[in-house]
Amino acid sequence: MAAPGTLTLDANGRAVAAGDWTLASAPALGKRIDDAKRRGSAAGVEASGVSRLDTAGAELLLDLAGKREAITGLDPGRAALVDAVARAQATAVAKPPPKDGGIVALLARTGAAIENIWGDAVALVGFIGLILATIARVLPNPRRWRATSVFFHIEQTGLDAVPIVALLSFLVGAVVAFLGATVLRDFGASVFTVELVGYSFLREFGVLLTAILIAGRSGSAFTAQIGSMKAREEIDAIRTLGLDPVEVLVLPRALALLVSMPLLTFIAMIAGIFGGAMVCVWSLDISPGMFLTRFHETAHARHFWVGMSKAPLFAFLIAAIGCLEGFKVEGSAESVGEHTTSSVVQSIFVVILIDALAAIFFMELDV
User: Fold this and answer.
1) Distance CA 333, CA 143 (A)
2) Do 280 and 227 sit in the same domain of this protein?
3) How high is the mean pLDDT of the chain?
4) Measured between alpha carbons, how far is residue 148 from residues 132, 142, 199 in Å?
């Protein structure tokens, strides 16, 4: 029958433990131990009267005695339990106190961020190599092509994105033309707004706006889809079936973006130039015929191909980053959200970085 744990002091001031030293008796025993410590009782605990003992009671005995050697009278089983709790307390690592912020903490966070960026870059390069190896293995074998999945993702990433890409490009084209006309009007060169709109959208804005929209729309969707599958252990099920997750999940998405991105870039170019033409016609008294004639004379085909050449590269990088972040999800909804955000940020950063490097490269080539 259960007997509440008790703690008394003998004539020599030695603590005597008896009854059940278990979790149920812990609150009352904790108060008695505090009282005994305040009275300064002699170190040492006689525990032969303990009838039941668990880890909570063993921790209280150690707290009362101060050290394991001061506890006597335990049978071998209870002594082993106290020894295990004492070893656990000895090996427990205390958390360091929080450090105050300052230049050292700032440098530490900066170093950690740089290390994370380097790790992400290495992981991305490795994942790109894995995708290319999978493409080389699958393309010669038509039976392994997943045409249905590819066309499904082309519809999601391409066809469904046409309205937002066209509308945004049209508005940006109108804004660029309006700002250019405002500045050039002071120099009596408003007609050069045609060249400004043409060059900017053929070389930069068309592909850059499209890539940023696709990164936020499709790249994040790739991460959320694969991340949710990872959280539900569906990717483990795919591996159990003997299938390659990269072949099943990544390849159709990457190929779909490789098809959709150039088409969306072309649509963005046309919409942006059309938006600029509307501003020129309504605000600068440039007739549609004059706009088309000047655009035809000044916008060379090389500007178009410079912009289009960057579209497949951006598409492949966005797909790779989106899918890689999806595979990094650890199984919770919070992790899905974190990696989706990381996917968008990384994709936009990489797109702008590659675009800047490409601009310098083409400028050096005088293209």
Assistant:
1) 36
2) yes
3) 87
4) 21, 13, 38
In a shared domain, residues 37 and 149: no
Q: What is the mean pLDDT of residues 210-218?
A: 94
Instruction: Write the CA distances from 308 to 202, 279, 311, 354, integer angstroms.
Output: 8, 25, 5, 14
Enclosing domain of residue 36: 6-91
Asked whether residue 14 falls in the same domain as residue 86, the answer is yes
Q: Distance between CA atoms of 199 and 295, rounded to whole angstroms?
A: 10
Output the CA torsion sign for 279, 284, 287, 291.
Answer: negative
| pTM value surpassing 0.85 | no
Q: Are 269 and 295 in contact (CB under 8 A)?
A: no
Residues 84 and 145 occupy one common structural domain: no
Percent pLDDT > 90 in the chain is 42
Look at residue 99 in the predicted model and tell me its pLDDT.
60
CA angle 81, 85, 90 (to 5 degrees): 145
Amino acid, single-letter form, for residue 160 = D
pLDDT, tens digit (0-9, with 9 covering 90-100), for 325-343: 999 888 778 888 889 999 9
> Is 245 domain-assigned?
yes
Number of domains in the chain: 2
CB contact set of 177 (below 8 Å; sequence gap of 6+): 193, 196, 197, 275, 276, 277, 278, 279, 280
